[in-house]
Write a structure and sequence with these properties.
With 94 residues, the chain is an all-alpha fold. The chain has helices at residues 2-20, 29-34, 47-72.
């Protein structure tokens, strides 16, 4: 009985050791050496940070284009050629 338990224990330990030796391609020296900072897309920003910054810049640019378009067509403020007082209803300070 003791030999059977010893053999079973040895077999289990051997299987566990063999299962622990499987290699992960992301843990090899060549993979790590090839890309030391895989999460960074630049010096200090991740790809998500760059995409977020680009979205903010594009949003700001399109809002500025909308403002410029209003200035081009003179719709950013009421006409001041009227002899009557003009009430500013846009909510924007003049």
């Amino acid at each position: 009985m003791r030999i059977s338990t010893l053999a079973t224990s040895s077999l289990l330990i051997g299987l566990m050791a063999a299962a622990g030796c499987t290699s992960n391609k992301h843990a090899t020296w060549g993979y790590i050496k090839g890309n030391l900072t895989p999460e960074l897309a630049g010096t200090s920003e991740t790809k998500l940070d760059k995409e977020r910054n680009l979205a903010v810049v594009n949003n700001s640019d399109w809002r500025q284009v909308s403002d410029d378009w209003g200035r081009f067509w003179l719709t950013d403020q009421p006409n001041t050629l009227s002899p009557y007082p003009i009430v500013n209803t846009s909510g924007q300070p003049q």
